[in-house]
Each structure stands twice: as structure tokens, then as C-alpha cells.
Amino acid sequence: MNSSLALIWTITAATTLLQAGNGLLQALMPLRMQAEGISVASIGVVAAAYGLGFSTGCFLAPSFIRHVGYIRAFASLAAVVSVLILVMTQAHSTLAWILLRGLTGVTLACIFTVTDGWISARATSSHRGRILSIYMICTKVALMLSPLGISFGDIRTDGLFMMVSALITLSLLPIAATTTKEPPAPQGVRIEVRKLFATAPSAVVGAFVVGLVNGPVVAITPVFGISIGLSQDQAAALLFALQAGSLAMQWPLGWLSDRADRRYVIAGLAAGTSLVSLLILWASAQGASLLVLWSFAIWGGLALCIYSVCVAHACDIVEPGQIVSTVGTLLFSWAAGVTVGPLFGAGAMQLIGPQGLFIYSALASLGLVAFIVMRIMRVQRTPAKGGFADIAPTSSASATLSPRAESEVSPSADEPEAEPSGQKVEASAVARADTAS
Q1: How far is CA 363 from CA 125, 199, 371, 395, in A?
Q2: Which helix (H) or strand (E) holds 144?
Q3: Rounded Cα–Cα distance for residues 171 and 108 (Å)
Q4: Rounded to whole angstroms, what are the CA distances from 37 to 33, 43, 101, 347?
Q5: In the chain, % of residues over pLDDT 90
Q6: Which of 8, 112, 184, 419 has the smallest CB count inside 10 Å?
Q7: Residue 404: how many CA atoms within 13 Å on its side-chain side?
């Protein structure tokens, strides 16, 4: 165990610093844009640009890593992200924000492919669960706590952007200090949405709707907080509540999903997301800021956990050799949702007001419930023991067991290409949704 930890401490430290910067950026960007008078609809377009860039980066990453290797890929990409953050201090138009956010989406997707591939290759079979748990907890806590750093500066000045840039630059130090050999380069993965939809339609639709709902909520939450009368610090704390809720609920929900048809769990989480969306609307109308905060924690514990159950459900059904491709396809479906979801969410806020975001969330979640119930009535499945409970009990985009990318990374030569259906799926394969903004 200790020797295995020695192999991953550098990439774990680097990713933790990177996620600390990324989490602060998630809170800072929408608040800065709003302070500059950019409309909510335009902020949604910027968030959509991130989703489009992220999905593009997922496809570009394997060939880039094959060309330069893991260490140089991380170093060069982190340097690019750091520069992009500094350039954001000079962004004063919607077009500039769209271009910069799209480019950060591309580069962050490539970086997360590097980190996930590194961890997956270095975690040995006998200690994989514990090692991935340590990795995911470190990065999840960084993503959860960093939005609170918004209180250290003024969103109208450049200091907080410099702090984000500094954290991302510092992530280069552990990588530069590593003395271990980098893993073998990854290979690409075929994306087969139509084929997987024919096999596991609940998983494909679930992943897409997760992107539709979680994308705009994570991206626009700070603006929502300000719009209902919260202070800058309280608005950033809503992101903390989302991630804290998902961290607390991931493991219990995983345990439950291993003992029932996972589609019931997906439907229950989606129904709960819809109900809590209404609770947020009521609490915000009453001006009950503490209840709003707790409601966001519950919302995060439900909505941010759906994707991982979708992945586990699909991997229960497909052949063992198709698991990596399956996760890649689900990641693509999620990214498609993240790309268009912020447009709908921001549009609803623009038309209806702040409450439009969670009216949209409630309706989209109900649509998923209806689809899953229809599938349950048409096809009965027996519970698949194992699988989900063996995944590390945390998040990245961030992210929990949300989308992150074994979908772009092939296993190392001394690991099997895919573990049997019903056994554990790599935690790093489902950890990216937390980073969507």
C-alpha cells in the first residue's frame, strides 16, 4: 500500500492544487461576468462553450499524450490554463469570455485525461479501491472548499484570478519533482451512442439529462445566489454545499444501488432532484438563506450522484470488453447535455427570473423520471450485486463519482482491459461532472 501511494502522491498533489484553482474559478467567473453587466443568457452561452470545449478535449487528449507523454502533457497544459486565467482579467466582452472558457474546457479535459490515466495505471489491483479513494477525496475536498476563497478578494479586481493562476501554476511543482516512470500512453475509444442506447437506454438518457441539469446549475449557481439577495460569500458557499452534499451521499446511494434495480435509484434521485428544486424555489422566495444552503446540499447529494449510477447500470449490462467504450460513450452523452443545458437554464432565468433555473431543473428531472419509469415497465431487470459499491466514495468534474475519464484512457499493459460486468468500475472513469461550469 505504501509503495503504491508513493507512485501516485505526485499526481494526487498536482490534481488537488489544480482542482483548488478550478473550484475557485467556478465561483469567480459567473460573478465577475455579472458584475461587468453581462446578461444571464450570455453567461449560459459561456458555460455552454466550456462544455463544447471539454468534449472536444476528451477526443484530442489521447493523441496529444501519445505524442509528448504524461509529464510533458500535464506541464504544458497547466501552463496554458494558467495563462488563460490571467487573460480573463482583460476579458470585457461576451465573445472574449466564450473563447477563453472554451479553451479552458479543452485544456482541462486533456489535463484530467492525464491525471486519470496516471492514477488508473499506477493503482495496483490489490489496493486500487483505497488508492482511488485517497485520490478522489483529496481532489473532491479541494473542489468543495476552494469556492469559499471568493471571500479573500474583490471580484471586480484581478487578485482572485491571480490566485487561481497561482494555484494552477503550483500544480506543476509535484509533477516536476516526480522520480517515477510515467505510464504507457493511452489509446482512443470508440463512441457508439446508438449501439449503447439500444442496449442500455436508461443509462444514455440519464447521462444526457444529468448534463442538461447539472451543467447550468453548477455554472450559474453563484449568479442565482446574488439574484435572490445573497452576499458574494454566501453565493459562493452554495457551490460548497452542492459538492459537500454529493460527497456525503455518494457512498450510501452506491450501497443502495447495489441492492436494487439501479433504474429505481436513478428514478428516485431524479424525482428527489425535482422536489428539492421546488424547495429551493420556496426557500429563496421566503428569504430563508440557511434553508437555501441546506437545500443546495440536498440537491447536490441527489443530482450530482445520478451519473455514477447510470455508469454502473450500463456496465452491468454490456460485455466486459465493452466497459471502457461504454464509459466513453456515456461521457460523450453527458458532455452533450453540458453543452446545451446552460443555454436552457440561463434562458429560463432570463425569461422568468432567478426561479427559472430551478423550474427548469425540476421539469428536466421529471422528464428523466418519466422515461425511466417507462423503461422499468417495459423491461424488468434483476439487481446486479457488486459494481457500484467498490467505486471510491467521492467525486471532476469535478469529479464524486461523476464523469472523469477512463473513457479516454486505455488500461496499462499489466492491467486487464476491462473488469467483468458487476465488478468495480474505475472511479476515475466517472469523475468529470463536478468540473462542469
Answers
A1: 42, 26, 13, 25
A2: helix 128-145
A3: 13
A4: 7, 10, 18, 16
A5: 53
A6: 184
A7: 37
pTM: 0.81
* Cell 469523475, located at residue: 431
Give which of 237, 268, 271 is closest to 252, Cα–Cα: 268
CB neighbours of residue 424 within 10 Å: 19
Question: If we measure between CA atoms, which residue out of 405, 407, 411 comes closest to residue 431?
Answer: 405
- In DSSP notation, 18-32 reads HHHHHHHHHHHHHHH
Q: What angle do CA 428, 434, 437 make, to 5 degrees?
A: 135
* Predicted pLDDT at 130: 66
b/e map of 328-357 (b: 16 or more CB within 10 Å)? bbbbbbbbbbbbbbbbbbbbbbeeeebbbb
Q: Are 220 and 47 in contact (CB under 8 A)?
A: yes
Taken in order of first residue, the domains within the chain and their CATH numbers are 2-435 (1.20.1250.20)
Are residues 219 and 43 in contact, defined by beta-carbon separation less than 8 angstroms?
A: yes
Residue 359 C-alpha cell reads as 423550474
Q: Where are the alpha helices (DSSP H) in 353-428?
A: 356-378
Residue carrying the nine cell digits 469556492: 147
Q: What angle do CA 194, 200, 203 make, to 5 degrees?
A: 100
Q: How many residues does the chain have?
A: 437
Sequence letter at residue 71: I
Query: How many angstroms separate the Cα of 143 from the Cα of each of 104, 243, 256, 383, 426?
Result: 16, 8, 26, 33, 20
- How is residue 125 annotated by DSSP? T
Can you give the pLDDT at residue 275? Answer: 97
The pLDDT tens digits of the residues spanning 153-199 come to: 999 999 999 999 999 999 999 988 877 777 776 666 677 889 999 98
CA-CA-CA-CA torsion sign (313, 317, 318, 320)? positive
